[in-house]
Amino acid sequence: MKSTLARFLLFIAAGVFCSLSLPAQEQNLTFESLPGELGTTTWATVIQDSRGYLWFGSYGTGLYMYDGSTTTRFQYDPFDPFTISQNNIYTAFIDKKDTIWLGTPEGLCKFDTHTGKFTRFTSSLIPGMPELGNVNCINEDDQGYLWISNFNGHLWRYDRRNDEFLELTSKLNGGRHPTSGFYELLRVIYKDRNKTFWVVTSRGLN
Questions:
Q1: Which of 57, 65, 105, 190 is close enough to 72 for a disulfide, judged by CB 3.0 to 4.6 Å?
Q2: How confident is the model at residue 180 (pLDDT cuts 50, 70, 90)?
Q3: Does this model's pTM top 0.85?
Q4: Phi and psi, residue 39, nearest 5°
Q5: SS3 helix, strand, coil % of the chain, rounded to 5?
């Protein structure tokens, strides 16, 4: 009987200790502001590469790389075709080869971390390619295809080996997806752990 009571009291004491320690742990939580522009800029997206570096896409001031101590900024230069296509960055994605892909108001943009150069995927620079518009989502499947969408609700699959864009917009929502119009917003392209792609639109889940 005494041993049972002792175990019961020990259980109660442990519960009280946990309940008292939780607020103290919460009070010890602190947030540290990053120095310089990192602490004051309006951000749209953040990703991390294989080296551990953080990449921040901003609204209006370009792309930033933070290595833990220093910050490097990449901005649009109208006189240099190998710079970023726009200083507004809606989304950023790193593929299996550690290449950075950006979605901007001027379409798709690729950054090679080895050469430090950007490639702009726009119809004005690459004849025959579709007008991607405001790219807002990017993902990659196991075959290496990139899945790209824009704020107008259009969806493409990009075959990098053959440099071909296949539009899949008409297949969304059981074929009821319109081919144009801002009312069909495509919000998310997500790949789950079973390698299934989920496409979220303003009309439902695909």
A1: 65
A2: very low
A3: no
A4: -90, -5
A5: 20, 35, 45
